[in-house]
Design brief:
The complex is a heterotrimer of chains A (321), B (304) and C (299). Chain A has 14 helices and two strands, in the order ααααββαααααααααα. With 321 residues, chain A is mostly helical. Chain B is an all-alpha fold and 304 residues long. Classes of the chains: A mainly alpha (321), B mainly alpha (304), C alpha/beta (299).
Chain lengths: 321, 304, 299
């Protein structure tokens, strides 16, 4: 197990460095004035220009710039956003938990439904009930989350008025305790639902394939020969043995959740990382854009690493190595 | 190398075209025999026809703002009009061109880039393999939409740039798939035989292995096209796609401000995106079904 | 439980003989465009407490026959699947899923598979997998019964063993775990499909001894499927010789060995006895397998 951990770390760290390197390389390729590209669209005075040039080593050769950026990163400095007038790390620290919250709630809805539908579908493969779920998930998977978000807002928020159309609730809330949770839940319901539909259908499709795979294994025949009931076989053998791919995919999807959040958070004006990224892109605030993208890369790589380690810990065959 | 010359002549032999062509016709026949494949083919055919004959199908110039703004669906304007009085049906018809162009362009771009990388890495192994596959992993780290958004943020949002950005983001999937196929096939007897026969490396890679590796790759091309269409729509929805082209995603971007007044501004463009993505996924499912006969037909699942 | 079995016409009368009676069983499969007649009109019967051997080279349909009898065939489309399989008088091809389950669960039949690693769940502890076959809640009674079964299958230190995962056991130990699982239902009839093929020679003998002991002590009918004539000579009262989906010869083991009527059976036995005089055990072993035989026939 220790060897596996070391092996995975040796894999992850160079990857992370390479990703950041490529991101910085792309930043160098922007045509036009590098200072303007750093700070975004607003007029700059010569003194300010000199200060920025010095701070980010813009006159120095590329390797020195990259080096200084890495050194800053190691000190937790993701740069300064001149548009927001705040350090980029502050912006990220403020938005990231909201994105994580949205993702977690979405997963809480998506995983049980995905497992349920995938298992029902996989254990009745090519029968009518499977055809129904396969077609449904195929169509649901094709719905862009942002359009689904628009439709949900249109029907449930605007037409019926059951949910707020956007945001994550009043900045200063007078509610406390349980009613505070209820108030927040009210706001998170629609974005989480839209997210869950997309992720849930993906989980269902993966689960179906995995269940079909498990059902072809010898130990399922042994279980049948034992005279176990259908539900005992599913509970005792199929679910546990079919879930590893789902754990991996769900874990990776969690790391990549920022991708989905970009569009979803824009629909619902959910002030997470995704919305921040879109705002920064629109304001041409490249310092913030690069900061968020690098943060996302770190998040993905770290979470994938954790998922792999968790996977190894769950599998007795790897654990004992 | 005399073997190489002989093969060059062979590759000009028109007879070998008969093989792939017959194979293609048989594949289409099989596709139409599967439920998903047939539905997928029908949808894709519809989209291609709409894209090719857009000027004949669209009742109005898509950019003409002559209609009453935000008028609901009617016989005059099948899908209603938008806030500037453009006919949404005509916009969607022309938007098909953009979506198919980006979808097919990106999928084939990814096929070429990813295919080359996968072939080289899978066939030669060693240092090339390590380098190329780590590179693929590098580009696969960030979610596709983030890569595209990042590129667009830095370099602008023309159609060609967007296309490049999408290819940049999705090629690793194709590379890994082709790589896996080549790893699997390179050890097989027919490859060993071809090597003994002194056939050129390029010949072995392209003419011996490729035909055997192609089927799952084609499935992935269809899936890539659906991803590219979704990404383009997403960028359009963020208001960051090429402003000079009509696109379904852009219509949704505009619709954000008006959809509470006019549901049709959001509904029809979104439905068009769904249709294209469903079509491509059904097509891929159908292909999968004819490739892997285990998935076919018979009711399966857990027996008693 | 008994009500269900009564409904299916299955009664546990001691006098019901034969225990298993198979008539004209056919299993034809699609393989590509061709049809393979894996089992092609087989008649077979097993009396109470009797030990039967089914021999034949690989591909002769012997494993498919066992699976078809026990209704454990894989889920594929059959070109033809018909025949009568009477167990204690009731036709297994017609009984309900519930009744079938009851037979598998208690005093009916069970099966030991060839490849114990694939047929044991890699993520579950061995003890739990045995306990599952006992049914009921996992408590002290069950766990002592599990240990008893593991011991009966010839495993020492069953308490410690029950906590291990299949991949932590040797091949022979896994096969004994499979046997313990099969014994859990106190079956009247045990099928063993190539129970020793995957094992080392010395372990093979031990596992065979265990099977023979269980057969005698429990008065349990047994069907052993093998390509190894030595196993049949060791353990079986009667033998069926299969080739290409058909039974070409059957009778008392001694009769068949001394007086084979079908030329294939004759060749099979002649070859194996000729080699039996071979010097080293390895040679004898190789000679006794029908794989060697079939290549000999081809020559």
């Amino acid at each position: 197990m220790l060897r596996f951990v070391l092996f995975r770390l040796l894999h992850a760290i160079p990857l992370l460095i390479a990703v950041i390197f490529v991101i910085l390389l792309m930043l160098q390729l922007i045509p036009g004035d590098p200072v303007q590209a750093m700070v975004g669209d607003f007029p700059v005075s010569p003194e300010f220009r000199a200060a920025v040039t010095k701070q980010y080593h813009l006159d120095d050769p590329f390797p020195i710039r990259v080096y200084s950026y890495f050194v800053n990163l190691l000190h937790g400095d993701f740069g300064y956003s001149y548009q927001f007038q705040r350090p980029v790390l502050d912006l990220i620290a403020e938005s990231a938990p909201r994105t994580i919250l949205l993702t977690l709630v979405g997963f809480l809805i998506a995983i049980p439904f995905g497992v349920l539908i995938g298992t029902v579908s996989g254990t009745t493969r090519n029968r009518r009930i499977d055809h129904f779920w396969t077609s449904s998930t195929l169509i649901a998977y094709a719905i862009p989350t942002f359009w689904l978000g628009q439709l949900l807002v249109l029907v449930l928020a605007v037409h019926f008025g059951w949910f707020p159309t956007q945001g994550m609730g009043p900045l200063v809330s007078r509610a406390h305790g349980f009613s505070w949770i209820l108030e927040r839940a009210h706001y998170i319901a629609l974005p989480a639902l839209a997210f869950a539909v997309h992720e849930g259908t993906r989980f269902a499709r993966i689960m179906r394939a995995s269940v079909a795979d498990t059902l072809g294994q010898g130990y399922i025949i042994t279980a049948r020969a034992k005279g176990l009931t259908r539900s005992a076989i599913i509970r005792g053998h199929v679910l546990r043995n079919s879930s590893p791919p789902l754990v991996t995919v769900a874990g990776y999807a969690f790391g990549a959740a920022l991708g989905g959040a970009v569009l979803l958070e824009t629909v619902f004006t959910w002030p997470g990382l995704g919305l921040l990224l879109v705002q920064a892109v629109r304001m041409r605030d490249n310092m913030t854009v690069v900061g968020i993208v690098i943060f996302a890369a770190i998040a993905v790589i770290v979470i994938n690493l954790l998922v792999d380690l968790l996977y190894a810990a769950l599998d007795p065959r790897i654990r004992s190595r | 190398m005399s073997g190489e010359r002989a093969l060059d002549q062979q590759s000009f032999d028109p007879r070998w075209l008969a093989g792939p062509w017959r194979g293609f016709r048989a594949a289409v026949g099989n596709m139409l025999g599967t439920r998903h494949g047939a539905a997928g083919c029908a949808i894709l055919l519809l989209l291609v026809v709409v894209a090719l004959f857009a000027p004949l199908i669209a009742p109005y110039d898509p950019l003409q703002q002559a209609q009453a703004s935000l008028s609901p669906p009617s016989w005059q304007n099948l899908f209603g009009t938008d806030n500037t009085g453009r006919d949404i049906f005509s916009l969607i018809v022309y938007g098909t061109r953009t979506s198919l162009a980006i979808g097919l362009g990106a999928a084939f771009g990814a096929l070429i880039v990813g295919g080359m990388v996968g072939m080289l890495a899978g066939y030669f192994r060693g240092a090339i393999e390590t380098l190329l596959m780590r590179l693929a992993e590098l580009f696969q780290t960030l979610p596709v939409i983030v890569v595209v958004l990042f590129t667009v943020a830095l370099f602008g949002s023309s159609f060609w740039l967007l296309l490049t950005a999408v290819i940049l983001a999705i090629w690793p999937v194709e590379a890994r798939l082709v790589y896996g196929q080549y790893i699997r096939l390179r050890g097989m007897d027919f490859v060993a035989a071809a090597k003994i026969a002194d056939l050129s490396t390029a010949h072995i890679m392209l003419r011996e292995i490729l035909p055997n590796a192609i089927q799952p790759v084609v499935v992935q091309v269809a899936l890539d096209a659906s991803v590219a269409i979704l990404i383009e729509a997403g960028l359009g929805f963020l208001g960051l796609s090429d402003p000079n082209m009509v696109s379904w995603g852009q219509l949704l971007y505009v619709a954000q401000d008006y959809m509470t007044l006019a549901w049709w501004t959001s509904f029809f463009p979104g439905a068009a995106i769904c249709l294209a993505v469903v079509g491509l996924n059904l097509f891929a499912d159908g292909l999968n079904e004819i490739i892997d006969p285990r998935m076919r037909g018979r009711a399966g699942g857990l027996q008693s | 439980m008994n009500a269900m079995l009564d409904d299916a016409g299955i009664t546990d009368r001691g006098d019901c003989d034969p225990l298993l009676d198979v008539r004209d069983l056919k299993v034809h499969l699609h393989v590509g465009d061709a049809i393979v007649r894996a089992v092609d009109g087989v008649d077979l019967s097993v009396r109470r407490g009797e030990s039967i051997g089914i021999v034949g080279e690989s591909g002769s349909g012997k494993s498919t026959l066992a699976r078809a009898i026990l209704k454990l065939l894989p889920n594929v489309e059959f070109a033809e699947l018909q025949g009568e399989v009477r167990f204690r008088g009731a036709d297994l091809t017609r009984i309900s899923d519930g009744a079938l389950r009851e037979l598998r669960r208690r005093n009916g039949f069970s099966m030991v598979f060839q490849d114990p690693l694939g047929y044991l769940n890699p993520t579950k502890r061995v003890g739990k997998q045995v306990a599952e076959a006992l049914g009921g809640k996992h408590d002290g009674v069950v766990s002592s019964r599990v240990q008893q079964l593991l011991a009966e299958a010839g495993l020492s230190d069953p308490a410690e063993l029950a906590r291990r995962f299949p991949h932590e056991l040797s091949g022979g130990m896994r096969q004994r775990v499979m046997i313990a699982i099969a014994l859990a239902s106190e079956p009247a009839l045990l099928f063993a499909d190539e129970p020793t093929t995957a094992l080392d020679a010395t372990v093979q003998l031990q596992v065979l001894e265990t099977l023979g002991r269980l057969h005698r002590d429990r008065n349990m009918a047994m069907v052993i499927i093998t390509h190894d004539l030595g196993v049949v000579a060791e353990l079986c009262d009667r033998v069926y010789v299969m080739r290409a989906g058909k039974v070409v010869e059957n009778g008392d083991t001694i009769d068949v060995f001394e007086n084979p009527r079908h030329p294939y059976a004759a060749q099979l036995i002649e070859l194996s006895t000729r080699h039996r005089r071979g010097s080293t055990p390895a040679e004898t072993k190789a000679a006794l397998s029908t794989e060697a035989l079939s290549s000999g026939v081809a020559r």
